[in-house]
Write a structure and sequence with these properties.
Strand content: 25-35%
Structural class: alpha/beta
CATH architecture: 2-Layer Sandwich
Number of domains: 1
Distance between the termini: 40 Å
CATH superfamily: Bira Bifunctional Protein, Domain 2
CATH topology: BirA Bifunctional Protein, domain 2
Length: 241
Amino acid sequence: MVLEILPVKHGTAAENMALDFLLLQGHPRPSAPRFRHYGWHRPAFTFGYAQKISFVRSSLPSGEGLDVCRRPTGGGIVDHRDDWTYSVVIPRGHPLEDVRATQSYREIHECVAGALRAQGVPAVTKQSCEPPADGATCAASGVCFQRAELHDVVHSGSGEKIAGGAQKRNKHGLLFQGSIWRPAIGAGANLDWDRFHDDLAEQLGLALRCEATPSPWPGLDDEEVSGLVEQYSSPEWIEFR
């Protein structure tokens, strides 16, 4: 069994979200999970499938021409202006797809933390959830990097959240969309991000019991891709809640 490492692509927010969803929806391979890192054409924010657009608008910075898109996964608002973004698609029937959401979240974040530690970043996964000082519950924050939640990746010295993620499961498998906030790594850290990519792929391969193998993109249907990008760019999608 192999973990297919797809080539890096840069796109708009709608393009990146559409490709992630199509990898889950139409192109999973029963024996091959997939991993990809991607970038952004312009400053972007994404937000969770279930979030209210009124909350999102009130939380975004003003005065900037931002590329904004609703994700197919859950979670909060993610600022992609200085992050390192990736996704993992695990097909239906794989042992890690079949576990509870908290376990798959933890195991993927353990891989992220391990890849960061390989370059000297004191990264760990958060092992408990304490109610915030304002007396609220442990429910996830509506803005991803405001505070760390259970199994997020945090800096063991500062406690600052380094990495978070969001998941979607359906009959085809599991989509995990992850974000690493570069400023939280620490001013003294000088990561080799190409090495981090390879280290993370290796860690994911071990967790998934697969050999990490560079692979070409699957043959996506151009009309299907353009149709979903158009949907994800539309006010009907972005503002439906």
